[in-house]
From TrEMBL:
SUPFAM superfamilies noted in UniProt: P-loop containing nucleoside triphosphate hydrolases
Domain ABC transporter: from-to ranges: 12-248, 259-502
Keywords, in A-Z order: ATP-binding, Cell membrane, Membrane, Nucleotide-binding, Repeat, Sugar transport, Translocase, Transport
Top-level lineage group: Bacteria
Gene Ontology MF annotations: ATP binding
Pfam families: ABC_tran (PF00005)
InterPro entries per the UniProt record, alphabetical: AAA+_ATPase (IPR003593), ABC_carbohydrate_import_ATPase (IPR050107), ABC_transporter-like_ATP-bd (IPR003439), ABC_transporter-like_CS (IPR017871), P-loop_NTPase (IPR027417)
Protein name per UniProt: Sugar ABC transporter ATP-binding protein
PANTHER family in the cross-refs: CARBOHYDRATE TRANSPORT ATP-BINDING PROTEIN MG119-RELATED, D-ALLOSE IMPORT ATP-BINDING PROTEIN ALSA-RELATED
Gene3D superfamilies associated with the record: P-loop containing nucleotide triphosphate hydrolases
Length: 505
Protein backbone atom coordinates (compact mmCIF):
# COMPACT_ATOMS: atom_id res chain seq x y z
CA UNK A 1 0.00 0.00 0.00
CA UNK A 2 0.95 3.67 -0.21
CA UNK A 3 4.06 4.53 1.78
CA UNK A 4 3.46 5.83 5.30
CA UNK A 5 6.50 8.14 5.19
CA UNK A 6 5.25 11.62 4.18
CA UNK A 7 8.84 12.74 3.52
CA UNK A 8 9.49 9.99 0.97
CA UNK A 9 9.75 11.31 -2.59
CA UNK A 10 7.08 10.21 -5.06
CA UNK A 11 7.88 7.36 -7.40
CA UNK A 12 7.05 9.56 -10.41
CA UNK A 13 6.58 13.31 -10.59
CA UNK A 14 5.99 15.69 -13.49
CA UNK A 15 5.86 19.44 -12.78
CA UNK A 16 4.83 22.11 -15.27
CA UNK A 17 5.62 19.90 -18.27
CA UNK A 18 5.02 21.47 -21.70
CA UNK A 19 5.08 19.99 -25.21
CA UNK A 20 4.22 21.42 -28.63
CA UNK A 21 4.17 19.98 -32.12
CA UNK A 22 4.73 22.93 -34.43
CA UNK A 23 1.82 25.34 -33.86
CA UNK A 24 -0.17 22.75 -31.86
CA UNK A 25 0.26 22.81 -28.08
CA UNK A 26 -0.33 19.34 -26.65
CA UNK A 27 0.70 20.11 -23.05
CA UNK A 28 0.46 23.59 -21.57
CA UNK A 29 1.19 22.75 -17.94
CA UNK A 30 1.03 19.10 -16.90
CA UNK A 31 1.49 18.01 -13.30
CA UNK A 32 1.39 14.45 -11.98
CA UNK A 33 2.60 13.09 -8.64
CA UNK A 34 2.38 9.31 -8.17
CA UNK A 35 3.27 7.86 -4.78
CA UNK A 36 5.03 4.55 -4.24
CA UNK A 37 2.56 1.76 -3.45
CA UNK A 38 -0.44 3.47 -5.01
CA UNK A 39 -2.67 3.26 -8.08
CA UNK A 40 -3.15 6.73 -9.55
CA UNK A 41 -5.87 7.42 -12.13
CA UNK A 42 -5.27 9.93 -14.92
CA UNK A 43 -8.47 11.10 -16.60
CA UNK A 44 -9.48 13.67 -19.20
CA UNK A 45 -11.17 13.98 -22.56
CA UNK A 46 -9.45 12.87 -25.76
CA UNK A 47 -7.00 15.62 -26.62
CA UNK A 48 -6.52 16.57 -22.95
CA UNK A 49 -2.85 15.59 -23.22
CA UNK A 50 -2.84 12.22 -21.42
CA UNK A 51 -1.21 10.28 -24.26
CA UNK A 52 1.43 12.96 -24.81
CA UNK A 53 2.28 12.91 -21.11
CA UNK A 54 2.58 9.11 -21.16
CA UNK A 55 4.88 9.22 -24.21
CA UNK A 56 7.15 11.70 -22.42
CA UNK A 57 7.37 9.34 -19.45
CA UNK A 58 8.03 6.45 -21.85
CA UNK A 59 10.86 8.29 -23.63
CA UNK A 60 9.05 8.53 -26.98
CA UNK A 61 8.85 12.34 -26.76
CA UNK A 62 11.13 14.85 -25.07
CA UNK A 63 9.41 17.59 -23.13
CA UNK A 64 9.88 21.23 -24.11
CA UNK A 65 9.78 22.47 -20.54
CA UNK A 66 9.06 21.49 -16.95
CA UNK A 67 10.58 18.77 -14.77
CA UNK A 68 10.44 14.97 -14.63
CA UNK A 69 11.69 12.99 -11.64
CA UNK A 70 11.83 9.36 -10.47
CA UNK A 71 12.10 8.77 -6.72
CA UNK A 72 13.01 12.42 -6.32
CA UNK A 73 15.90 12.32 -8.82
CA UNK A 74 15.62 14.38 -12.04
CA UNK A 75 15.60 12.33 -15.25
CA UNK A 76 15.57 13.19 -18.94
CA UNK A 77 14.88 10.26 -21.20
CA UNK A 78 16.26 10.33 -24.75
CA UNK A 79 14.74 6.98 -25.74
CA UNK A 80 12.30 4.29 -24.71
CA UNK A 81 15.27 2.09 -23.79
CA UNK A 82 16.36 4.66 -21.19
CA UNK A 83 12.84 4.80 -19.75
CA UNK A 84 12.63 1.01 -19.49
CA UNK A 85 16.08 0.80 -17.94
CA UNK A 86 14.95 3.29 -15.29
CA UNK A 87 12.12 0.92 -14.31
CA UNK A 88 9.15 2.31 -16.27
CA UNK A 89 6.82 0.06 -18.26
CA UNK A 90 3.96 1.35 -20.40
CA UNK A 91 0.98 -0.68 -21.61
CA UNK A 92 -0.52 1.26 -24.49
CA UNK A 93 -4.17 1.26 -25.51
CA UNK A 94 -3.34 -0.35 -28.87
CA UNK A 95 -1.24 -3.54 -28.81
CA UNK A 96 2.13 -3.27 -30.58
CA UNK A 97 3.10 -6.86 -31.31
CA UNK A 98 5.04 -8.65 -34.04
CA UNK A 99 2.35 -10.82 -35.68
CA UNK A 100 4.73 -13.44 -37.11
CA UNK A 101 6.49 -14.10 -33.81
CA UNK A 102 5.26 -16.31 -30.99
CA UNK A 103 3.64 -15.06 -27.82
CA UNK A 104 6.83 -15.78 -25.86
CA UNK A 105 9.08 -14.06 -28.41
CA UNK A 106 6.91 -10.94 -28.23
CA UNK A 107 7.12 -10.81 -24.45
CA UNK A 108 10.94 -10.97 -24.44
CA UNK A 109 11.69 -9.10 -27.67
CA UNK A 110 15.04 -7.30 -27.38
CA UNK A 111 15.98 -8.84 -24.02
CA UNK A 112 16.01 -12.60 -24.60
CA UNK A 113 17.82 -14.61 -21.90
CA UNK A 114 20.91 -16.44 -23.12
CA UNK A 115 22.50 -19.70 -22.07
CA UNK A 116 25.75 -21.40 -22.97
CA UNK A 117 27.70 -19.99 -25.91
CA UNK A 118 25.42 -16.94 -25.98
CA UNK A 119 22.46 -18.81 -27.45
CA UNK A 120 18.92 -17.67 -26.66
CA UNK A 121 17.49 -19.80 -23.87
CA UNK A 122 14.07 -20.51 -25.34
CA UNK A 123 13.18 -22.92 -22.57
CA UNK A 124 13.75 -20.28 -19.89
CA UNK A 125 11.71 -17.77 -21.90
CA UNK A 126 8.83 -20.20 -22.25
CA UNK A 127 8.87 -21.14 -18.57
CA UNK A 128 8.79 -17.49 -17.48
CA UNK A 129 5.97 -16.73 -19.93
CA UNK A 130 3.95 -19.63 -18.52
CA UNK A 131 4.61 -18.39 -14.98
CA UNK A 132 3.37 -14.89 -15.88
CA UNK A 133 0.20 -16.24 -17.49
CA UNK A 134 -0.42 -18.41 -14.42
CA UNK A 135 -0.03 -15.30 -12.26
CA UNK A 136 -2.52 -13.48 -14.47
CA UNK A 137 -4.91 -16.43 -14.35
CA UNK A 138 -5.14 -16.78 -18.14
CA UNK A 139 -4.65 -19.65 -20.54
CA UNK A 140 -2.60 -18.64 -23.54
CA UNK A 141 -0.33 -20.86 -25.61
CA UNK A 142 3.16 -19.33 -25.34
CA UNK A 143 4.23 -20.99 -28.61
CA UNK A 144 1.48 -19.78 -30.93
CA UNK A 145 2.00 -16.82 -33.28
CA UNK A 146 0.29 -13.62 -32.17
CA UNK A 147 -1.22 -13.07 -35.63
CA UNK A 148 -4.96 -13.74 -35.42
CA UNK A 149 -5.24 -13.31 -31.65
CA UNK A 150 -8.12 -11.22 -30.37
CA UNK A 151 -7.45 -7.73 -29.07
CA UNK A 152 -8.13 -9.06 -25.57
CA UNK A 153 -5.39 -11.68 -25.91
CA UNK A 154 -3.02 -9.15 -27.46
CA UNK A 155 -3.63 -6.87 -24.50
CA UNK A 156 -2.85 -9.71 -22.09
CA UNK A 157 0.49 -10.19 -23.88
CA UNK A 158 1.27 -6.50 -23.46
CA UNK A 159 0.49 -6.78 -19.75
CA UNK A 160 2.70 -9.88 -19.47
CA UNK A 161 5.49 -7.99 -21.24
CA UNK A 162 5.28 -5.16 -18.70
CA UNK A 163 5.15 -7.53 -15.72
CA UNK A 164 8.21 -9.39 -17.04
CA UNK A 165 10.17 -6.13 -16.85
CA UNK A 166 9.59 -6.03 -13.06
CA UNK A 167 8.96 -2.32 -13.43
CA UNK A 168 8.81 0.08 -10.46
CA UNK A 169 6.39 2.37 -12.30
CA UNK A 170 3.71 0.79 -14.49
CA UNK A 171 1.59 3.00 -16.76
CA UNK A 172 -1.62 1.43 -18.10
CA UNK A 173 -3.19 3.40 -20.96
CA UNK A 174 -6.76 2.07 -21.39
CA UNK A 175 -5.66 -1.54 -20.70
CA UNK A 176 -9.21 -2.83 -20.21
CA UNK A 177 -10.75 -1.36 -23.37
CA UNK A 178 -11.13 -4.76 -25.06
CA UNK A 179 -11.36 -7.02 -22.00
CA UNK A 180 -14.39 -8.82 -20.63
CA UNK A 181 -15.58 -8.37 -17.07
CA UNK A 182 -13.82 -11.52 -15.91
CA UNK A 183 -10.57 -10.47 -17.58
CA UNK A 184 -10.82 -7.01 -16.03
CA UNK A 185 -11.22 -8.58 -12.59
CA UNK A 186 -8.06 -10.64 -13.19
CA UNK A 187 -6.15 -7.56 -14.30
CA UNK A 188 -7.29 -5.57 -11.28
CA UNK A 189 -6.19 -8.37 -8.95
CA UNK A 190 -2.74 -8.28 -10.53
CA UNK A 191 -2.64 -4.44 -10.32
CA UNK A 192 -3.52 -4.51 -6.63
CA UNK A 193 -0.84 -7.13 -6.04
CA UNK A 194 1.77 -4.95 -7.74
CA UNK A 195 0.66 -1.97 -5.65
CA UNK A 196 0.94 -4.02 -2.47
CA UNK A 197 4.48 -4.99 -3.48
CA UNK A 198 5.35 -1.29 -3.39
CA UNK A 199 5.13 -0.42 -7.07
CA UNK A 200 3.49 2.74 -8.43
CA UNK A 201 0.79 2.43 -11.10
CA UNK A 202 -0.75 5.05 -13.37
CA UNK A 203 -4.14 3.95 -14.69
CA UNK A 204 -5.72 5.81 -17.63
CA UNK A 205 -9.36 4.99 -18.30
CA UNK A 206 -12.60 6.54 -19.54
CA UNK A 207 -14.57 4.08 -17.41
CA UNK A 208 -15.38 5.74 -14.12
CA UNK A 209 -16.51 2.51 -12.46
CA UNK A 210 -12.96 1.18 -12.97
CA UNK A 211 -11.40 4.35 -11.56
CA UNK A 212 -13.51 4.15 -8.41
CA UNK A 213 -13.04 0.39 -8.06
CA UNK A 214 -9.27 0.29 -8.51
CA UNK A 215 -7.59 3.63 -7.87
CA UNK A 216 -6.50 5.49 -4.76
CA UNK A 217 -6.00 8.95 -6.28
CA UNK A 218 -7.15 10.70 -9.46
CA UNK A 219 -5.63 13.55 -11.46
CA UNK A 220 -7.79 15.42 -13.99
CA UNK A 221 -6.44 17.08 -17.16
CA UNK A 222 -8.22 19.37 -19.60
CA UNK A 223 -6.93 20.99 -22.80
CA UNK A 224 -3.32 20.04 -22.10
CA UNK A 225 -3.27 21.41 -18.57
CA UNK A 226 -3.50 20.12 -15.01
CA UNK A 227 -6.87 20.69 -13.32
CA UNK A 228 -6.75 18.97 -9.91
CA UNK A 229 -5.72 15.88 -7.93
CA UNK A 230 -8.15 14.30 -5.49
CA UNK A 231 -8.48 11.14 -3.40
CA UNK A 232 -10.88 8.85 -5.22
CA UNK A 233 -12.84 8.25 -2.03
CA UNK A 234 -13.46 11.98 -1.71
CA UNK A 235 -14.96 12.71 -5.13
CA UNK A 236 -17.88 11.72 -7.35
CA UNK A 237 -18.45 10.90 -11.01
CA UNK A 238 -20.32 14.19 -11.53
CA UNK A 239 -17.43 16.16 -10.06
CA UNK A 240 -14.88 14.42 -12.30
CA UNK A 241 -17.02 14.97 -15.39
CA UNK A 242 -17.37 18.68 -14.63
CA UNK A 243 -13.61 19.04 -14.24
CA UNK A 244 -12.91 17.04 -17.42
CA UNK A 245 -15.28 18.75 -19.81
CA UNK A 246 -15.86 22.07 -18.13
CA UNK A 247 -19.60 21.46 -18.11
CA UNK A 248 -22.20 19.02 -16.80
CA UNK A 249 -22.98 15.95 -18.85
CA UNK A 250 -26.55 15.41 -17.76
CA UNK A 251 -27.17 12.22 -19.66
CA UNK A 252 -24.62 9.71 -20.92
CA UNK A 253 -27.20 7.59 -22.74
CA UNK A 254 -29.53 10.05 -24.51
CA UNK A 255 -32.00 7.49 -25.85
CA UNK A 256 -34.42 9.31 -28.17
CA UNK A 257 -37.83 7.91 -29.13
CA UNK A 258 -37.91 6.35 -32.60
CA UNK A 259 -40.62 4.72 -34.66
CA UNK A 260 -39.70 1.10 -35.30
CA UNK A 261 -40.57 -0.08 -38.80
CA UNK A 262 -40.21 -3.21 -40.89
CA UNK A 263 -37.38 -5.73 -40.87
CA UNK A 264 -34.31 -4.37 -42.66
CA UNK A 265 -31.60 -6.87 -41.75
CA UNK A 266 -32.59 -10.54 -41.43
CA UNK A 267 -29.99 -13.15 -40.49
CA UNK A 268 -31.03 -16.81 -40.52
CA UNK A 269 -29.07 -19.87 -39.41
CA UNK A 270 -25.65 -18.29 -39.88
CA UNK A 271 -23.01 -20.95 -39.19
CA UNK A 272 -19.24 -21.14 -39.43
CA UNK A 273 -17.98 -24.33 -37.71
CA UNK A 274 -15.81 -23.59 -34.70
CA UNK A 275 -16.74 -19.92 -34.67
CA UNK A 276 -20.54 -19.48 -34.48
CA UNK A 277 -23.53 -21.75 -34.97
CA UNK A 278 -27.14 -21.25 -36.07
CA UNK A 279 -27.28 -17.51 -35.40
CA UNK A 280 -30.62 -15.93 -36.36
CA UNK A 281 -31.88 -12.42 -35.64
CA UNK A 282 -33.53 -9.38 -37.20
CA UNK A 283 -32.92 -5.65 -36.96
CA UNK A 284 -35.78 -3.33 -37.90
CA UNK A 285 -35.78 0.21 -39.22
CA UNK A 286 -35.41 2.70 -36.37
CA UNK A 287 -34.26 0.01 -33.94
CA UNK A 288 -31.02 -0.30 -32.00
CA UNK A 289 -30.29 -3.95 -31.26
CA UNK A 290 -27.51 -4.58 -28.75
CA UNK A 291 -25.32 -7.66 -29.13
CA UNK A 292 -23.83 -8.52 -25.75
CA UNK A 293 -21.63 -11.31 -24.41
CA UNK A 294 -18.16 -11.94 -23.06
CA UNK A 295 -15.08 -11.33 -25.17
CA UNK A 296 -14.63 -14.40 -27.41
CA UNK A 297 -18.35 -15.19 -27.60
CA UNK A 298 -18.33 -14.70 -31.38
CA UNK A 299 -20.06 -11.31 -31.62
CA UNK A 300 -17.47 -9.60 -33.82
CA UNK A 301 -17.13 -12.67 -36.02
CA UNK A 302 -20.89 -12.70 -36.70
CA UNK A 303 -20.83 -8.99 -37.55
CA UNK A 304 -17.91 -9.43 -39.94
CA UNK A 305 -19.62 -12.42 -41.60
CA UNK A 306 -22.86 -10.46 -42.07
CA UNK A 307 -20.91 -7.62 -43.69
CA UNK A 308 -19.00 -10.02 -45.93
CA UNK A 309 -15.49 -9.72 -44.49
CA UNK A 310 -15.40 -13.18 -42.87
CA UNK A 311 -16.78 -16.41 -44.40
CA UNK A 312 -19.71 -18.49 -43.24
CA UNK A 313 -20.57 -22.02 -44.29
CA UNK A 314 -24.34 -21.92 -44.18
CA UNK A 315 -27.26 -19.61 -43.48
CA UNK A 316 -28.41 -16.43 -45.16
CA UNK A 317 -28.40 -12.65 -44.85
CA UNK A 318 -31.15 -10.50 -46.34
CA UNK A 319 -31.46 -6.73 -46.56
CA UNK A 320 -34.92 -5.33 -47.25
CA UNK A 321 -36.02 -8.82 -48.23
CA UNK A 322 -33.30 -9.37 -50.85
CA UNK A 323 -30.47 -11.91 -50.34
CA UNK A 324 -27.05 -10.38 -49.71
CA UNK A 325 -24.13 -12.11 -51.47
CA UNK A 326 -21.76 -13.72 -48.97
CA UNK A 327 -18.14 -12.69 -48.77
CA UNK A 328 -18.63 -9.48 -50.72
CA UNK A 329 -18.12 -6.27 -48.70
CA UNK A 330 -18.45 -4.13 -51.84
CA UNK A 331 -21.96 -5.54 -52.42
CA UNK A 332 -22.79 -4.91 -48.77
CA UNK A 333 -21.76 -1.27 -49.03
CA UNK A 334 -23.78 -0.88 -52.22
CA UNK A 335 -26.84 -2.26 -50.39
CA UNK A 336 -26.43 0.26 -47.57
CA UNK A 337 -24.50 -1.71 -44.95
CA UNK A 338 -21.74 -0.10 -42.89
CA UNK A 339 -19.38 -1.77 -40.41
CA UNK A 340 -17.44 0.14 -37.75
CA UNK A 341 -14.92 -2.56 -36.72
CA UNK A 342 -13.59 -3.37 -33.28
CA UNK A 343 -9.93 -2.99 -34.28
CA UNK A 344 -9.86 0.50 -35.77
CA UNK A 345 -6.11 0.59 -36.49
CA UNK A 346 -5.90 -2.66 -38.47
CA UNK A 347 -9.39 -2.88 -39.93
CA UNK A 348 -10.88 0.60 -39.97
CA UNK A 349 -8.19 3.08 -40.96
CA UNK A 350 -5.27 3.71 -43.29
CA UNK A 351 -3.03 5.29 -40.69
CA UNK A 352 -0.54 6.89 -43.09
CA UNK A 353 -3.34 8.60 -45.03
CA UNK A 354 -4.91 11.93 -44.13
CA UNK A 355 -7.99 12.43 -41.98
CA UNK A 356 -9.90 13.66 -45.04
CA UNK A 357 -8.91 10.62 -47.10
CA UNK A 358 -9.98 8.21 -44.34
CA UNK A 359 -13.34 9.88 -43.76
CA UNK A 360 -14.17 9.68 -47.46
CA UNK A 361 -12.88 6.16 -48.17
CA UNK A 362 -16.36 4.62 -48.36
CA UNK A 363 -17.82 7.35 -50.60
CA UNK A 364 -15.00 8.06 -53.02
CA UNK A 365 -16.98 6.79 -55.99
CA UNK A 366 -19.74 9.30 -55.18
CA UNK A 367 -17.24 12.14 -54.97
CA UNK A 368 -15.47 11.29 -58.22
CA UNK A 369 -15.84 13.64 -61.19
CA UNK A 370 -14.64 12.22 -64.50
CA UNK A 371 -12.81 9.52 -62.58
CA UNK A 372 -11.02 11.96 -60.28
CA UNK A 373 -11.63 12.98 -56.66
CA UNK A 374 -10.91 16.67 -56.19
CA UNK A 375 -9.36 17.81 -52.92
CA UNK A 376 -12.08 20.42 -52.45
CA UNK A 377 -14.89 17.87 -52.60
CA UNK A 378 -12.98 15.46 -50.36
CA UNK A 379 -12.25 18.12 -47.75
CA UNK A 380 -15.83 19.44 -47.78
CA UNK A 381 -17.26 15.96 -47.16
CA UNK A 382 -14.69 15.19 -44.47
CA UNK A 383 -15.12 18.55 -42.74
CA UNK A 384 -18.81 17.88 -42.09
CA UNK A 385 -18.19 14.72 -40.08
CA UNK A 386 -14.96 15.88 -38.47
CA UNK A 387 -16.92 18.84 -37.13
CA UNK A 388 -19.96 16.84 -36.01
CA UNK A 389 -17.80 14.30 -34.17
CA UNK A 390 -15.43 16.99 -32.87
CA UNK A 391 -12.30 15.30 -34.21
CA UNK A 392 -9.34 17.07 -32.62
CA UNK A 393 -6.74 17.48 -35.36
CA UNK A 394 -4.46 20.26 -36.54
CA UNK A 395 -5.79 19.91 -40.09
CA UNK A 396 -7.74 17.56 -42.33
CA UNK A 397 -4.52 16.79 -44.18
CA UNK A 398 -2.84 15.50 -41.00
CA UNK A 399 -1.96 11.80 -41.01
CA UNK A 400 -4.59 9.78 -39.14
CA UNK A 401 -1.89 7.82 -37.32
CA UNK A 402 -0.87 10.99 -35.46
CA UNK A 403 -4.27 11.34 -33.78
CA UNK A 404 -5.12 10.05 -30.32
CA UNK A 405 -6.92 6.71 -30.10
CA UNK A 406 -10.27 8.30 -29.36
CA UNK A 407 -9.98 10.69 -32.29
CA UNK A 408 -9.08 7.80 -34.57
CA UNK A 409 -12.31 6.11 -33.46
CA UNK A 410 -14.23 9.23 -34.41
CA UNK A 411 -12.67 9.17 -37.88
CA UNK A 412 -13.84 5.55 -38.37
CA UNK A 413 -17.35 6.53 -37.31
CA UNK A 414 -17.29 9.51 -39.64
CA UNK A 415 -16.16 7.35 -42.57
CA UNK A 416 -19.19 5.08 -42.33
CA UNK A 417 -21.73 7.70 -41.34
CA UNK A 418 -20.71 9.66 -44.44
CA UNK A 419 -21.99 6.72 -46.53
CA UNK A 420 -25.55 7.37 -45.31
CA UNK A 421 -26.09 3.71 -44.32
CA UNK A 422 -29.35 1.76 -44.26
CA UNK A 423 -27.89 -0.72 -41.75
CA UNK A 424 -25.16 0.40 -39.37
CA UNK A 425 -23.15 -2.27 -37.53
CA UNK A 426 -21.00 -0.70 -34.81
CA UNK A 427 -18.52 -2.89 -32.92
CA UNK A 428 -17.42 -1.19 -29.68
CA UNK A 429 -18.49 2.27 -30.97
CA UNK A 430 -17.19 4.23 -27.98
CA UNK A 431 -14.07 2.25 -27.18
CA UNK A 432 -11.39 4.72 -26.09
CA UNK A 433 -13.69 7.74 -26.39
CA UNK A 434 -13.99 10.24 -23.56
CA UNK A 435 -17.17 10.80 -21.59
CA UNK A 436 -18.24 13.99 -23.36
CA UNK A 437 -17.87 12.55 -26.86
CA UNK A 438 -19.32 9.22 -25.75
CA UNK A 439 -22.60 10.96 -24.96
CA UNK A 440 -22.49 12.67 -28.35
CA UNK A 441 -21.90 9.34 -30.16
CA UNK A 442 -24.87 7.86 -28.30
CA UNK A 443 -26.98 10.87 -29.26
CA UNK A 444 -25.87 10.45 -32.87
CA UNK A 445 -26.87 6.77 -32.88
CA UNK A 446 -30.28 7.71 -31.47
CA UNK A 447 -30.77 10.34 -34.18
CA UNK A 448 -29.85 7.83 -36.88
CA UNK A 449 -32.42 5.42 -35.46
CA UNK A 450 -35.01 8.22 -35.54
CA UNK A 451 -34.20 8.63 -39.23
CA UNK A 452 -34.98 4.95 -39.83
CA UNK A 453 -31.49 3.45 -39.81
CA UNK A 454 -31.33 -0.14 -38.49
CA UNK A 455 -28.47 -0.35 -35.97
CA UNK A 456 -26.69 -3.42 -34.62
CA UNK A 457 -24.47 -2.36 -31.73
CA UNK A 458 -21.85 -4.66 -30.23
CA UNK A 459 -20.46 -3.52 -26.91
CA UNK A 460 -18.58 -5.00 -23.96
CA UNK A 461 -19.85 -2.17 -21.76
CA UNK A 462 -23.08 -3.46 -20.27
CA UNK A 463 -24.35 0.02 -19.24
CA UNK A 464 -23.98 1.10 -22.88
CA UNK A 465 -25.99 -1.88 -24.12
CA UNK A 466 -28.72 -1.43 -21.52
CA UNK A 467 -28.81 2.33 -22.00
CA UNK A 468 -29.09 2.37 -25.79
CA UNK A 469 -30.65 -0.88 -27.04
CA UNK A 470 -34.33 -1.49 -27.81
CA UNK A 471 -33.60 -5.22 -27.74
CA UNK A 472 -30.58 -7.11 -26.41
CA UNK A 473 -29.22 -10.28 -28.00
CA UNK A 474 -26.73 -12.26 -25.94
CA UNK A 475 -24.09 -14.65 -27.27
CA UNK A 476 -22.14 -17.36 -25.50
CA UNK A 477 -19.52 -19.56 -27.18
CA UNK A 478 -20.74 -18.81 -30.68
CA UNK A 479 -24.47 -19.26 -30.02
CA UNK A 480 -27.30 -16.88 -29.26
CA UNK A 481 -28.44 -17.64 -25.72
CA UNK A 482 -30.72 -14.73 -24.99
CA UNK A 483 -33.08 -12.19 -26.50
CA UNK A 484 -34.44 -9.55 -24.16
CA UNK A 485 -36.70 -6.56 -24.68
CA UNK A 486 -35.46 -3.27 -23.27
CA UNK A 487 -37.77 -3.50 -20.27
CA UNK A 488 -36.52 -6.99 -19.36
CA UNK A 489 -32.82 -6.41 -20.05
CA UNK A 490 -31.30 -6.22 -16.59
CA UNK A 491 -27.59 -6.71 -15.85
CA UNK A 492 -28.42 -9.98 -14.10
CA UNK A 493 -30.44 -11.34 -17.03
CA UNK A 494 -27.78 -10.43 -19.58
CA UNK A 495 -24.94 -11.92 -17.55
CA UNK A 496 -26.92 -15.10 -16.91
CA UNK A 497 -27.37 -15.59 -20.64
CA UNK A 498 -23.70 -14.78 -21.29
CA UNK A 499 -22.29 -17.19 -18.71
CA UNK A 500 -24.66 -20.16 -18.42
CA UNK A 501 -26.14 -22.83 -20.65
CA UNK A 502 -29.62 -21.56 -19.87
CA UNK A 503 -31.35 -19.72 -22.71
CA UNK A 504 -33.03 -16.46 -21.70
CA UNK A 505 -36.01 -15.13 -23.63
Amino acid sequence: MQTDDPSAPPALELSGVTKSFGPVTALRSANLRVETGSIHALVGENGAGKSTLVKIVAGLYRRDGGALALDGAPVDFHSTAESKAAGIAVIYQEPTLFPDLSVTENIFMGRQPTGRFGRIDRRAMRQEAQAIFARLGVRLDPDRPTDGLSIADQQIIEIAKAISLDARVLVMDEPTAALSGIEVDRLFAVARGLRDEGRALVFISHRFDEVFDLCDTVTVMRDGAYVDTLPVAGTTVDELVRMMVGRDVAELFPKLPAEVGDDVLVVEGLTQPGVFHDVSFTVRAGEIVGLAGLVGAGRSEVARAVFGVDPYESGSVRVDGEPLPRGNPRASIARGLALVPEDRRRQGLVLDQTVARNVTLAIRERLARWGLVWDGLENAAARTWASRLEVKTAALDAETGTLSGGNQQKVVLGKWLASDPRVLIVDEPTRGIDVGTKAEVHRLLSRLAQQGVAILMISSELPEVLGMADRVLVMREGRLTGELDRADATPEAVMRAATTEEAVR
